[in-house]
Structure formats: structure tokens, C-alpha cells
Amino acid sequence: MPSYLVTGANRGLGLAMVKELLKDPQNVVVGTARDPGRCEALEALTKEYPSDRFASVALNLLVKYTIDKAAEDTAALLPNGLDYLVNNAGVCHQNVVPFESVDMDVLVEELHVNTAAPLYLLQKFLPLIRKGSEKKVMLISSCLGSLEAAPMFLGCSDSYSLTKAGLNMLGRKWGALLKEEGVTVVVVHPGWIDTDMGSHIEDWVAQHAPETRKLPPSESAEGCLKVFQIAKLENAVEYYTWDGTNLPW
Ligand code: NDP
Which atom of ligand 1 is nearest to the CA of 144? Predict the structure, then answer.
């Protein structure tokens, strides 16, 4: 039975991915949240599904030991290893703040969650991924992390763009090495999604890219997971949008 771990599973895209995955009775799903016991949506899933189909695990990307503990807890839940790791949790605290006004302390926190912690998460979960049969990692990034596309997004979430460009580098460089040992890394832009995060750039989109469609989380989740599942080791490392088209790095 394929096993999945999704970070940031308590709301937004992460929760939508967990729900999408649970539709397939073959899948075993672990969803992480900072405080799963206080999340009604995860509690409801815990009641709805048996513990060998769905479990929630505590993980706060800002607190290193919770990542250590989450790796241990997941290893106990998945004795055959982890097939698919989805690094989804992320923050964007300075949506329309131009570089000139970016608060460095807030930027450091954004870098911690979006760039540094995913590196540590991968370090800690790699042994479990190596033990799994699929050996796949999806980094949920953003088109705002693309260096080539940057001129299209001036003034939109500038500090966040730095963090996602860093995440892309993590995926592209480490993914190229991991490919040699059979681990497939994909970097995916999930589209503009109707979530808390997505709602903060309404005005920018209306002004600069009014043709952009805001996706329901379920549609983005389905697309991202399809891209992840069909991704091939020989093509790693690729940067895709949720509908499978390639993005320029
Ligand atoms: P939301 O803001 O709706 O959800 C963010 C998730 O990340 C929540 O589960 C949140 O948990 C979790 N999270 C934040 N900080 C931490 C932390 N320190 N430790 C653990 N979990 C944390 O965002 P989306 O669902 O929209 O975004 C999901 C991913 O998609 C992100 O990586 C985002 O950058 C990316 N993305 C989103 C776009 C959009 O339009 N929405 C566009 C492009 C990319 P908590 O409730 O505890 O804060």
C-alpha cells in the first residue's frame, strides 16, 4: 500500500491533498500539523478512517526537535518506509511588501519555514524514504520562485520569492544527487489557490494578472498529486505547475 506524508495538512492545499489521497483505499496517509489535536478537520479524518489508513503527527517547521520526533513517529507508523513525501507547509508573511520595506526578521522566519526547514525535514526523513519502494519527494514551491519568470511578478510577495527560489535550488541540486540513488524529486507550483495564503494577493492579481484563475484547493491538490505520481526518475529534477506543464527555473 503506497504511503504518503503531507506537511501542513491541517488546512489549505495540504488538507485538500490528504482528502484527495484518502479517496484511494490503497493509500496510507500521514498528515502533519503544528497541533493536530486542536484541528477539527484532522480529528474528523482520524475518526473517519482506521489508524492504518490515516494518522496525524505533530510537526512545527520552526522547532527542530518536532521534526526529529515527527520522523520517529512516522517511522513507527510506516515500518515499510515512506513512499511519497510532500513538503507542502509554507508561509508568506509579506505579501505586497516591496523589497525596500521588507522586514528582515520576518524574512528570516519565512526563510526558516520555506527553505531551511524543508532541508532539515528531508535530512530527517531520507532514511525512511530510502526504505520505501517509490522513493519520491515533492517540494511545493511557487512560480514566484522562478528566476526566469521574476520580471512578471514584480512587487508580488518579494521576500517569499527569495524563499521559494531557495527551495527550488534545494530541489534542483540535492534532487540531482538523490536521483543517482533512485530518489525522484519534483518541484511543483500549485497554481493560485483559494486558501488563506492565496487570498492575500487578490489585489495584486486583479491589477497585474487578471486572467489568472483561482483554483479550488481540491483541483490544485488533484493536479499536484497526479504530477507527483507520474513523475519519472529519468526526468528528475523537473519544475512543474499543478497541471503538468514545465516551468522555467
Ligand atoms: P495556507 O496558508 O492556507 O496553509 C499553510 C500551511 O502551512 C498550514 O497548514 C500551516 O499550518 C502550515 N505552516 C505554516 N507555518 C508552519 C510551521 N512553522 N510549521 C508547520 N506548518 C506550518 O497556504 P496554502 O495551503 O495556500 O499553501 C500551501 C503551499 O502552497 C505553500 O508551500 C505555499 O507557499 C504554496 N503556494 C500557495 C499558493 C496559493 O495561491 N495559495 C501559490 C503558490 C504556492 P498552521 O495552520 O499551523 O499555520
Answer: 43
Which of 242, 227, 219, 241 is closest to 19 using CA atoms?
219
Domains of the chain: 3-241 (3.40.50.720)
Q: Write the pLDDT tens digit of every residue in 5-35.
A: 999 999 999 999 999 999 999 999 999 999 9
Asked if residue 132 lies in contact with residue 80, where contact means CB atoms within 8 angstroms, the answer is yes
Rounded Cα distance, 100 and 98, in Å: 5
CA of 71 to the centre of ligand 1 (A): 20
**Residue whose CB lies within 8 A of the most ligand 1 atoms, among 193, 201, 224, for a mutation test:** 193
For the stretch 118-147, pLDDT in tens is 999 999 999 999 999 999 999 999 999 999
Q: Is the ipTM of this complex over 0.95?
A: yes
76: closest CA among 51, 103, 112?
A: 51
Find the mean pLDDT for residues 143-152.
96
